[in-house]
Recover the amino acids of this structure.
């Protein structure tokens, strides 16, 4: 070792005192030999610290040599039967290939991916056989975020275990008839199997970090024992380009998430080509994670390299390993041993001499670390046992390992889903499958008898770890009572005369009521992204505390205030900072806790609706896939309610996004009693009934008097629309005004103008959910189409309006498309006019913004009068009089273009 250290010293620069250097190096070598690397590391850190404090300029490096982190002598060897495990992996590789190739020979457009599982089969095998626990009475079970494109390999394992049938395997990516297997991990489509969706890429590692933090949160609060559980997330090196993949690694280190392991499958390739052709992705990721405070373990070289590295006294091999870029490494594995000899070992004469006695086949068999079970087991064991930090395993593999010339280490490997007969035969031979030549054309699945020793071993290993994985719990075993609606009396009643509150304040009162509930109080999870004071929720800081695993190591500056900022090891609030994606990932962890932890939690994630929904749209879809249950609260919603903030603060489209998600129940309530009715219904459906839905509720900071709940309004509120007030019965002319959110109040004021100024009566309809009204109409429309001879159903909104008179005007604080959803279900021969806030937001007062977007009471009045004129019920001159009376500029540009 001293020769190697001398070589390193020589590379650094000329040595003015070689004898002194030798004494230092000999001392360090003695420490390494006699006391171990941990002691050596401690001494080196002390020396570096002293030098820096004395002013020495010592360069910092967050990377280490391009070799395995675990020295050969310290590797824990896999205790399993490696012969059985190798055969099992080979069978799984074959069955995964057969499933994808058979599907695409039958239907060439189905797609599928072979190469990702081919590269990480060893890792999944070691994990399933030796590390990952299923839920039992003594162990809550480990949580697995499986690399999305490797799903065929997981199906292949489940097939051998008897958990999937051959019929299901034959229906890979054919799900419509209910017999198939989903393309990627989808809990929505396979609710008893997959725990988490991991595609779109980048969401898996991000959600895994917050899932691990949520396990710590549950344990700290005494809700569930989670200290023996791990979260394992598998992702590709190309996937690490996604900002979400690395976006939260600082949180994981800061919160000391030693229950988290991220495994990066470094096969050096994306779909199109190399991940880092000119550099090294492993070194780059090591710097990212080590710099963030993670425990980093690199598994680069297989056992064949150990002897060569031991011979590398001068460090030449390590230097060449470091200087060789990933594009070259990819090329080596796409060629042969002779090519590797010439282009890798040929970079230095002493390296050629080192492998002179090795054949080209010997050189070709020098594997990467990710394909050796002992190297993988040793790394997994360190990850399992490491304390105080999250661990990342950077594992070097070959994309398409075992696929031969048809895909191994080639740029086309990711998309390879069709193999010709020769490639199939080559794979059969490489993995020693007992399939005769005359059957190869059929690509049969291979499954030995149940009493085959390998099969017995397969089941024994899972039995020892508590059962089969992945598996998912559909329902929580526990049941929790839901408070009756009258528990929220403080927001159901009308406000006293002279008092005004906002729907945001009503929501805070609902939360406060729930927190006092003896059963549900501890299960409420308030999630905030640095906007607590905006929403008037800062009172919760002192009341229930902000979760921080370190507690509060400082005295808060506002300690003398009633609502001071209080952090606590058992705090109930998850304060995510300025981080909508983090807030959503925490919400997902809590909203699926009934499944992952058998603990029903009630998450309320409150965010600026503009900043929140459009930023986390991909995660909302993932949450629906995971069958999440909880409340998303979009604060200061609508294009005109957040006065003074400007274009990128004002939301006119979050309800358009929400409408696209089938399990989302979206509401835009105007009044506090509507908020209470909706939330209580959500608790009933998600907790008592355990339905797989979640609620998106928009709330506003605009204060006004609250009318209170009238008997019988509950059903209409939940269905999405009800009559709020009726116009004069004596009027000859009548219109119907629909509104929601704060803009409903403009319809109420417009009803007064129509009556007082023009003698037109207006019935006013509150529509807390135009989206649910539209879904009901679409459902009736579909039923009528496929049941033409049966009694035709009448959409709910049609039944409400069909016996009314006059044109219908719908006005919202969102794009016109929001209210256009229900146009098809308007009664026949009735005018339907929609006003909305299409265009960019901007700063101004609420009154000016509503004038600018043409949704204030005057525009509602003019729209109603114009609709009456269109129906021939009044003269058009009346409309012109109204335009003049209310000072409307007819030449004003359309706000959509401004």
């Amino acid at each position: 070792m001293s020769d190697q250290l001398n070589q390193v010293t020589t590379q650094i620069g000329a040595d003015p005192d070689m004898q002194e250097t030798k004494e230092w190096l000999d001392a360090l070598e003695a420490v390494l030999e006699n006391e171990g690397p941990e002691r050596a590391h401690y001494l080196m850190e002390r020396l570096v610290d002293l030098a820096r404090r004395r002013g020495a300029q010592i360069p910092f490096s967050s990377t280490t040599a391009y070799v395995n982190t675990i020295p050969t002598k310290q590797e824990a060897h896999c205790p399993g039967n490696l012969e059985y495990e190798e055969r099992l992996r080979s069978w799984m590789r074959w069955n995964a290939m057969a499933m994808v190739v058979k599907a695409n020979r039958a239907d060439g457009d189905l797609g599928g991916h072979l190469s990702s599982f081919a590269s990480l089969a060893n890792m999944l095998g070691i994990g399933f056989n030796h590390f990952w626990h299923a839920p039992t009475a003594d162990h809550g079970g480990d949580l697995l975020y499986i690399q999305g494109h490797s799903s065929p390999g997981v199906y292949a394992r489940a097939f051998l275990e008897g958990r999937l049938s051959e019929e299901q395997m034959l229906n890979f990516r054919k799900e419509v008839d209910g017999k198939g297997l989903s393309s990627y991990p989808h809990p929505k489509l396979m609710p008893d199997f997959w725990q988490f969706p991991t595609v779109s890429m980048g969401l898996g590692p991000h959600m895994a970090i917050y899932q691990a933090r949520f396990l710590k949160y549950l344990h700290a609060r005494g809700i569930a024992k989670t200290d023996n559980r791990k979260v394992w997330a598998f992702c590709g090196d190309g996937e690490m380009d996604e900002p979400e993949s690395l976006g939260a690694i600082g949180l994981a280190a800061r919160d000391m998430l030693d229950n988290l392991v991220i495994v990066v499958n470094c096969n050096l390739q994306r779909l199109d080509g190399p991940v880092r052709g000119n550099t090294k992705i492993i070194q780059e990721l090591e710097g990212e994670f080590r710099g963030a405070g993670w425990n980093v373990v690199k598994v680069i070289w297989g056992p064949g390299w150990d002897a060569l590295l031991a011979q590398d006294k001068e460090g030449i091999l390590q230097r060449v390993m470091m200087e060789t870029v990933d594009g070259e490494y990819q090329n080596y594995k796409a060629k042969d041993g002779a090519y590797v000899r010439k282009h890798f070992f040929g970079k230095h004469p002493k390296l050629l001499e080192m492998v002179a006695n090795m054949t080209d086949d010997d050189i070709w068999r020098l594997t990467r670390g990710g394909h050796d079970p002992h190297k993988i087991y040793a790394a997994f064991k360190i990850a399992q046992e490491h304390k105080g930090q999250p661990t990342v395993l950077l594992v070097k593999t070959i994309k398409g390992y075992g696929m031969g010339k048809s895909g191994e280490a080639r740029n086309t490997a990711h998309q390879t889903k069709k193999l010709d007969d020769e490639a199939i035969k080559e794979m059969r031979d490489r993995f020693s499958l007992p399939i005769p030549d005359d059957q190869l054309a059929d690509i049969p699945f291979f499954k030995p008898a149940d009493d085959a020793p390998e099969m017995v071993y397969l089941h024994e290993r899972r039995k020892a770890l508590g059962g089969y994985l992945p598996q998912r719990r559909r329902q929580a075993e526990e049941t929790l009572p839901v408070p009756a609606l009258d528990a929220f009396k403080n927001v159901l009643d009308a406000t006293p005369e002279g008092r005004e509150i906002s729907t945001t304040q009503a929501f805070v009162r609902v939360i406060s009521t729930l927190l006092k509930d003896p059963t549900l109080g501890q299960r409420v999870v308030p999630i905030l992204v640095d906007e607590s004071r905006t929403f008037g929720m800062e009172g919760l800081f002192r009341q229930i505390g902000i979760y921080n695993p370190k507690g509060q190591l400082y005295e808060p500056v506002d300690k003398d205030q009633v609502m001071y900022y209080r952090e606590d090891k058992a705090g109930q609030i998850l304060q995510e900072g300025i981080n909508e994606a983090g807030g959503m990932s925490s919400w997902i962890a809590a909203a699926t806790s009934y499944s992952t932890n058998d603990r029903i939690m009630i998450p309320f994630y409150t965010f600026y609706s503009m900043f929140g929904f459009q930023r986390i749209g991909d995660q909302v879809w993932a949450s629906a896939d995971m069958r999440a249950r909880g409340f998303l609260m979009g604060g200061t919603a609508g294009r005109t309610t957040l006065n003074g903030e400007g274009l990128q603060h004002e939301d006119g489209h979050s309800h358009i996004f929400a409408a696209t998600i089938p399990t989302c129940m979206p509401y835009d309530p105007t009044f506090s009693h509507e908020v209470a009715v909706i939330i209580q219904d959500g608790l009933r459906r998600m907790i008592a009934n355990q339905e797989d839905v979640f609620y998106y509720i928009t709330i506003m900071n605009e204060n006004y008097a609250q009318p209170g709940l009238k008997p019988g309004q509950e059903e209409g509120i939940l269905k999405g629309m009800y009559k709020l007030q009726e116009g004069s019965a004596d009027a000859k002319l009548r219109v119907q005004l629909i509104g929601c959110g704060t803009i409903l109040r403009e319809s109420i004021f417009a009803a007064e103008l129509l009556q007082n100024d023009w003698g037109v009566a207006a019935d006013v309809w509150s529509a807390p959910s135009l989206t649910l009204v539209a879904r009901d109409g679409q459902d009736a429309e579909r039923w009528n189409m496929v049941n033409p001879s049966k009694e035709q159903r009448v959409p709910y909104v049609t039944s409400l309006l069909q016996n009314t008179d006059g044109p219908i005007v719908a006005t919202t604080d969102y794009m016109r498309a929001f209210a256009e959803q229900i146009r098809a279900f308007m009664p026949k021969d009735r005018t339907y006019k929609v006003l909305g806030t299409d265009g960019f937001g901007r700063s101004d007062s609420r009154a000016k913004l509503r004038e600018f977007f043409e949704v204030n009471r005057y525009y509602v009045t003019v729209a109603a009068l114009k609709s009456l004129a269109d129906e021939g019920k009044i003269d058009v001159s009346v409309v012109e009089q109204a335009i003049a009376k209310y000072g409307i500029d007819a030449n004003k540009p359309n706000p959509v273009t401004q």
Summary: Residues 304-366 form one domain. The chain has five domains: 1-59, 82-302+369-465, 304-366, 488-635+672-698, 720-886. The longest helix spans residues 82-106. The radius of gyration is 33 Å.
